[in-house]
Amino acid sequence: MIRIWGRTNSSNVMKVLWLLDELGLTFERIDAGGKFGRTDTAEYRAMNPPGLVPTLEENGFSLFESNAILRYVCNACVPGSSWYPAAPRARAEVDAWLDLQQTALARPQSVVFVTLVRTPPEKRDMQAVASALSEAGQVWAMLDAKLRGRDFIAGSAPSIADIAFGANVHRWFAMPIERPDLPALRGWYERLLARAPYVQHVAQPLT
Ligand SMILES: N[C@@H](CCC(=O)N[C@@H](CS)C(=O)NCC(=O)O)C(=O)O
């Protein structure tokens, strides 16, 4: 059985839980990271060298990096499905957006979220927030442009690119920030909100 290590309020853990439930897969989850610790042991580092969450473990196999886990689950459990299409160009498009989420969005979005939601007001670096907001806003604007005239990032069906960005977009709309007006992004977020696994794992109060 698949085992996921990671606390439920991590956006990278949310991605994996959301996908597993979309696919109807059975799994167990162990709290790890943040206040739960467990990520600094030699055993955990052998599975996840940076000591972060999530980690997937399955019958002697383990994997770190949330987007790699999304790809693995699709390849292993629903090969060739629209979640991670097999055709080279369709797959490359999904990969490109998965990479953009990690390389361009993850850091600035995390600066804004951790500062505004997890840091006491007197300790907040609001200059860092302003700059990170601008960076994250540029990525959300790219996604807004991509989503014009289509339901999901890769077309008419959701893919793991939607999972990677979708785990962040709830925070984007739920945080007390000034947002640029991005109607296609808002429409896509509302489509995600219609999915029960999204609401269960992602669209929850911010903690
Ligand atoms: N690129 C990694 C980033 C993982 C990451 O930064 N995880 C955060 C939570 S979202 C973490 O482990 N923070 C430390 C902790 O929870 O102890 C991935 O996508 O899996």
Structural account:
This protein is α+β, with helices and mostly antiparallel strands. It has 2 domains: 2-77, Glutaredoxin, CATH 3.40.30.10; 88-199, Glutathione S-transferase Yfyf (Class Pi), Chain A, domain 2 (Up-down Bundle). Helix content is 56%, strand content 8%. It is built from 8 helices and 4 strands, in the order βαβαββαααααα. The chain has helices spanning 11-22, 42-47, 66-77, 88-118, 126-147, 160-174, 183-193, 196-201, and strands at 2-5, 27-30, 55-58, 61-64. A 4-stranded mixed β-sheet has the order 2-1-3-4, covered by helices on one side. β1, α1 (11-22) and β2 (27-30) form a beta-alpha-beta unit. α4 runs parallel beside α6 (160-174) and α5 (126-147) packs across α7. The chain is globular, with a radius of gyration of 17 Å. The model has no long low-confidence stretch (mean pLDDT 98). The chain binds glutathione. Glutathione (GSH) binds next to α1 and α3.
CATH class of the largest domain: Mainly Alpha
How many angstroms does the end-to-end distance come to? Answer: 29 Å
CATH architecture of the largest domain: Up-down Bundle
Report the major sheet. Answer: 4 strands, mixed
Radius of gyration: 17 Å
The helix content, as a percent range, equals 55-70%
Provide the low-confidence segments as ranges.
none
Order of helices and strands: EHEHEEHHHHHH
Bound molecules: glutathione
Strand fraction equals: 5-15%
Work out the number of β strands.
4
Strand order of the largest sheet: 2-1-3-4
The total number of structural domains is: 2
Please state the overall shape, judged from the principal axes of the Cα atoms: globular
State the CATH topology of the largest domain: Glutathione S-transferase Yfyf (Class Pi), Chain A, domain 2
- Number of helix segments? 8
Mean of residue pLDDT values: 98
